[in-house]
Amino acid sequence: MTLLQDTAHAKINLYLHMTGRRPDGYHLLDSLAVFAGAADEVRIAEKSDRFSLSIEGRFGAGLEADDSNLVLRAARALQAHAGKNDPYHLTLEKNLPVASGIGGGSADAACTLRLLGELWNIDEADLIAIAEPLGADVPVCVQQKPNRMEGIGEILTVAPAMPNGGILLINPGLAVSTPDIFRSFAAMGGIIERPAPVFPARWTSMSDLVEMLSLTANDLQAPAIHHAPSIGKVLDTLDMQKECLMARMSGSGATCFGLFPTPDAARNAEIELSKEAAHLGWWTWAGPLLQD
Length: 292
Ligand SMILES: C[C@](O)(CO)[C@H](O)COP(=O)(O)OP(=O)(O)OC[C@H]1O[C@@H](n2ccc(N)nc2=O)[C@H](O)[C@@H]1O
Ligand SMILES: Nc1ncnc2c1ncn2[C@@H]1O[C@H](COP(=O)(O)OP(=O)(O)OP(=O)(O)O)[C@@H](O)[C@H]1O
Description:
The protein is α+β, with helices and mostly antiparallel strands and 292 residues long. The chain folds into two domains: 4-158, 2-Layer Sandwich (Ribosomal Protein S5, domain 2), CATH 3.30.230; 166-288, Alpha-Beta Plaits (2-Layer Sandwich), CATH 3.30.70.890. The chain has ten helices and ten strands. The chain has helices at residues 70-82, 104-120, 124-131, 138-143, 178-187, 206-213, 221-227, 230-240, 263-272, 274-280, and strands at 4-21, 27-47, 52-56, 88-93, 147-150, 155-158, 166-171, 246-249, 256-260, 283-288. α1 (70-82) packs parallel to α2 and α5 packs across α7 (221-227). The structure holds 4-diphosphocytidyl-2-C-methyl-D-erythritol and adenosine-5'-triphosphate. Its EC number is 2.7.1.148.
């Protein structure tokens, strides 16, 4: 029996600039993080003598249901903070590819915090504080709203709502290691000095948003293509789709996204390339951006 359930949406970095480096080696960044309809699901079931986890879904086989899983790590961290002895059996439906730059594990951890926070009456501000040590992307995934991420991801500023556009995600079926990509970024020249993007009060259309994004970049894209040249092919394929306004990689890769004027335009492009995607073993998802 399911007591509570929630969706853990894919995080997309519409741009990702590296702005500096902390003494501990972590990179300071500036990013516009938004969320797509694509999602994992976390369910809380019956009480148990300790937190335990079952994993199902298309990408479930690639993950262990042990203490390394971010769902259990988040549950235990919140349990310790709340001083609760109230454990449950949890289920993760893993629909998002693992280690793919769309923060799936971070979204799962954040989703677990939201669910247990609801059961145990814990404020969002406390959840965000507990999220931080779990990973750089976990705080933004607690809110699942467009946010500017600064610091190493823990400084969040609410961004204007997304226009009602479409997004097509493609993952070429290879896991990319975030630390490896950061290391290559540093080795390939590192920080680029540039002015910080300025957001308007609102974006009226996808073209309006894309106009601002055209002045930005994902600084990890070139190092990721160096590690995994198939990312370049994914970007070319997205660029070739009718109505695709722009194509870029998210996070440390390998998932890339194309932005479209409407969710239907993104879905049509997904259908258009479905044969090629099936042949190459690519994962795809198309639909809306979460609005706010
Ligand atoms: C690239 C982004 O996805 C952008 O949203 C995130 O910054 C990465 O977040 P994440 O996957 O939660 O990363 P973490 O698990 O915290 O870090 C993995 C490793 O990547 C490197 N890392 C990560 C984040 C950051 N701002 N600087 C780094 O140098 C560090 O070597 C770190 O040990
Ligand atoms: N529930 C989980 N889902 C996915 N990965 C998990 C989970 N729990 C632990 N991990 C581990 O975390 C690592 C990163 O996974 P994740 O899918 O979050 O990467 P990502 O999409 O590249 O994230 P980011 O965009 O934050 O860099 C994987 O190597 C995986 O083994």
